[in-house]
Amino acid sequence: MSRKTRRFAGAAVAGACGLALAAPALAAPAPAASPSAAATVASSATPAKAATAKPGAAKAASPRNVDVQILSFNDLHGNLEPPTGSSGRIQVGPTSTETADAGGVEYLATHLKQARAGHRNTVTVAAGDMVGASPLLSAAFHDEPTVDSLNSLGLDITAVGNHEFDEGYTELQRLQKGGCIDDGDGANNQNSCPDGAFEGADFQYLAANVVEKSTGKTILPSYAIKNFGNGVRIGFIGMTLKDTANIVTASGVAGLEFKDEVQTANKLVPVLKAKGVNAIVVLIHQGGTPPSGTPYYYTCQGGGQLDATSPIIPIAQKLSPAIDMVVSGHTHQPYVCNIPDPSGRDRLVTSASSFGRLYTETNLKYDTQRNDIARTSVQGSNMVVTRVVPKDAAQTELINRFKALVTPIASRVLGQITTDIVRAQNAAGESPLGDMIADAQLADDSTVKDGKVPVVAFMNPGGVRADLVYNSQKYPGENPGDVTFEEAFTVQPFNNYLVSMDLTGQEIYDVLNQQVTGANAASNKILAVSDGFTYSWTKTGTPGVVDGSVAIDGVPVDKSATYRISTNNFLSDGGDGFAAFQGGDDKFFGGLDIDAFADYLEANSPYSPQPLDRITLVP
């Protein structure tokens, strides 16, 4: 039996309501699953305070009830090594200074093995963004190392998230089924199949609400049925957020439709019931927001509640009462909450923060007479992935192997900085690192077409993923202030292309107003702008740009004139709600944003942060 077939014994997979797949299933399902061998290592996970679907109402075990364990996590983002800084800590006490180091797949794998000990019926699932926006160790190899890591730690099923589409949906399908990319053996600092082969995911990706417009078929299966044996079967429906197309590069999802999450899941309920599956869990890459500055166990079992505007709340409230549990993600937040279903019954909704710092353990009873989950038995807790347990040997070997392969790329010093360059924005929305990146994009000559040179560059704040830290040395011979390619890549990990285009002055005003209106009205997205471009904006009255304040090198922008501008392909396609970029004329694709950033560092070393005087917020 092959490695891939062995994992899927006892797990049936299927597509959308018509059951036709746009991509083939990985293996034919076996009629029943053999129970997983239980680990014998004692658990050492740090428990959260208990949360239940209805506290105090857990049913006593009886011959008709079978124990089932569901382990879940979300938003790993290819963090194989223990994440550093705030990304590698989790708040464990009432104050924000009470934190613990957490995360790293060597420790996550051990915690999961220990959690499975003594559980005959266990399944491990995830809620998307396993890959994408990943550290260089994974991204340099098109996230193949993360897929191999997830295979090793025993992931069974995951929903797709928006970042699974970072390199396009056909690349996502390749991660599922395997195979290599002919990428020039390291061109653009990426190298598929450095060991000669890539077998793909043993686990099943689910994409119930992602449909090819031309065929009406899902790009991956809609659901998977986990057969534990002895008649115990649970169906898992997997989805990404319906707004995915607005937050990924348009070319990567061209021809796809992202359907409503509630409608999609509710239509699949009768499909699963027709197969004799009454126990249903939704894995969804959409989430909620707990109160800030609170410990990981606070919401909802420690007294906190999700913010009323959390996108997951209306989704959970409208999902069919036949759905027993929701595993969520996307917001990178920790919570284990009860949200009533349409019939008023409590239903567990969980999320395990991000980067592998937490996992959720849910235990429940499966009623073999009703062939369904006993809803009142469902108990969930978030568990910290501490770093005091032994490292998993297989994960250590995988990390060391790819570290050796990536070191020549990662350790190259590009230049020096004189102090930390941070991405935190001031009140006006300007940041030192955003300014630096915008300047780098304006300086890149790959976007010059027919002698037309851009006069301003725009950068989205969500694409700036980390700070440049002065005192951060990882490789032998690296000095304080040195910036390596790995550090630069961590700041800009998406491999977006730079795009130049013509915009009228009015369209530039439209871009700036879209920072605080429409899709960005509730949460403003202030773009970084290059040196020489200045403007003022206000939150008072009608939010937006102060008319007449926009200038280039001190000269007011003429709304009827045409200007050459530069940005990345994500914004060019209207990402993050900036539709005005879509109307640009004479678009021309240049090089990669990371190459522009690296070149700028080399040409402007040592670099010091510039004054934050480009954007002004007025009363």
TrEMBL record:
Query: What would be one Pfam family of this protein?
Result: 5_nucleotid_C
Which intervals of the chain are annotated as region Disordered? Answer: 77-96
| Polar residues: compositionally biased ranges | 84-96
Q: Please report the stretch or stretches of sequence annotated as the Calcineurin-like phosphoesterase domain.
A: 70-334
Q: Which UniProt keywords apply?
A: Hydrolase, Nucleotide-binding, Signal
Nucleotide-binding: is it a keyword of this entry? yes
Please list the GO terms describing molecular function.
Answer: 5'-nucleotidase activity; nucleotide binding; UDP-sugar diphosphatase activity
**EC id:** 3.1.3.5
A GO cellular component annotated for this chain's UniProt record is: outer membrane-bounded periplasmic space
Name of the featured protein: 5'-nucleotidase
Q: Which organism is it from?
A: Terracoccus luteus
